């Protein structure tokens, strides 16, 4: 290679970074496609409430997505139901209660705090604590017990003789 002869290395990093940006924009826009334009309410304040409530409700088909993010037919029906109830003047709590009464507590992505949910989340902690207490009691009882019977005077004398005492 001579001093003036510099070979250019193709700059593929710019090409791949542009592809990554394009893919990110493409995939980041998918949740926006879940809500169809025909579902959107005319009043922006009511639409914001509907979107907020839809984000709290689980798609019963997908189960790991909110109805706001899901493209399932049931999710669309639930989004329309939420918007219908809001348009009829229901409060957010009334809308949620209506849907929970039909689909059960499972439809909520964030379950409400009740005795059942406290027991559900608290039971593992209580079981571990009970196991720790039982283990401690067992270990203390075992430590307090003698390990064997005492030696007779004859056995003690023989032991002392063997040990050279």
Keywords:
CcmH/CycL/NrfF/Ccl2_sf; iron; signal; 2 domains; heme; 165 residues; 7 helices; single chain; mainly alpha; Helicase, Ruva Protein, domain 3
Average pLDDT metric: 81
Q: Indicate the CATH class of the largest domain.
A: Mainly Alpha
User: Helix count, per DSSP?
Assistant: 7
CATH superfamily membership of the largest domain, which one?
Answer: Cytochrome C biogenesis protein
- Give a quick account of the main beta sheet: strands, pairing sense, barrel closure: none
Level-2 CATH architecture of the largest domain = Orthogonal Bundle
How many domains, in number, for the residues? 2
What is the molecular shape?
Answer: elongated
Q: In percent, how much strand structure appears in the residues?
A: under 5%
- At the third CATH level, what is the topology name of the largest domain? Helicase, Ruva Protein, domain 3
Oligomeric composition of the shown chains: single chain
Structural class: mainly alpha
* Low-confidence region ranges: none
Rounded to an integer in angstroms, the radius of gyration calculated over CA atoms is: 35 Å
Report on this structure:
With 165 residues, this protein is mainly α. It has two domains: 13-107, Orthogonal Bundle (Helicase, Ruva Protein, domain 3); 113-146. Helix content is 62%, strand content 0%. It is elongated. Belongs to the CcmH/CycL/Ccl2/NrfF family. Keywords: Cytochrome c-type biogenesis, Heme, Iron, Membrane, Metal-binding, Signal, Transmembrane, Transmembrane helix. It comes from Rhizobium sullae (Rhizobium hedysari).
């Amino acid at each position: 290679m001579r001093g003036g002869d510099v070979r250019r290395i193709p700059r593929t990093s710019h090409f791949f970074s542009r592809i990554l940006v394009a893919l990110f924009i493409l995939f980041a826009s998918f949740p926006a496609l879940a809500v169809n334009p025909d579902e959107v309410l005319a009043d922006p304040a009511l639409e914001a409430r509907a979107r907020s409530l839809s984000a709290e409700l689980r798609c019963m088909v997908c189960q790991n997505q909110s109805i706001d993010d899901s493209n399932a037919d049931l999710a669309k029906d639930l989004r329309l139901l939420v918007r219908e109830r809001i348009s009829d003047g229901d409060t957010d709590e009334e809308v949620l209660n209506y849907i929970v009464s039909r689909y059960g507590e499972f439809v909520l992505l964030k379950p409400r705090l009740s005795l059942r949910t406290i027991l559900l989340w608290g039971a593992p902690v209580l079981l571990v604590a009970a196991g720790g207490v039982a283990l401690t009691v067992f270990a203390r009882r075992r430590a307090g017990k003698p390990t064997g019977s005492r030696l007779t005077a004859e056995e003690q004398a023989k032991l002392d003789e063997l040990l050279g005492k």
